[in-house]
Write a structure and sequence with these properties.
The chain contains 5 helices and 6 strands. It is of the alpha+beta class and about 150 residues long.
Length: about 150
């Protein structure tokens, strides 16, 4: 059966079909003023190949697209409508450790959201930070070291 296996390798059809994009959700911030703007953005994104659902929230200036799509292509398609668009820069306020840190608090953010910046999260536990805390006034056991 070795010869048949060898010959069957030449007869098999290999698929040249590309890998399918993973299912993902893309959130985009788009400034929309009226129903026409909302409709134009929704129609532009709905016609894309691989899009399953499109949710447009004009009050939050937010568009949520779910499907087998490339996020950069979705952003490009929304920008092609003539609207200023960017990826959704906000996170829920309860996820940020320091929501009022500089750069995190944004007056234009929807209610309950803050900007996703590095300063809103605690610093890493680097060894230098631990050494500095040994000699701080907040450390009760600082006098035992000295």
């Amino acid at each position: 059966m070795g010869a048949l296996d060898y010959l069957s390798n030449f007869c098999t059809v290999t698929s040249t079909r590309s890998k399918r994009k993973p299912m993902q959700t893309v959130e985009i911030k788009v400034k929309m003023d009226c129903d026409g703007c909302e409709r134009r953005v929704k129609n532009a994104v709905t016609t894309m190949k691989g899009v399953k659902t499109v949710e447009v929230n004009r009050k939050q200036s937010r568009v949520v697209v779910s499907g087998y799509v490339d996020p950069n292509k979705v952003l490009k398609r929304v920008k092609r409508t003539g609207k200023r668009a960017e990826f959704w820069p906000y996170i829920p306020q309860h996820l940020a450790y320091y929501p009022y840190a500089s750069g995190a608090y944004d007056k234009r953010a929807p209610a309950g959201y803050v900007r996703n910046v590095l300063q809103a999260f605690p610093a890493s536990n680097a060894p230098e930070d631990n050494i500095v805390s040994v000699f701080s006034d907040d450390n009760v056991h600082a006098c035992s070291i000295m």
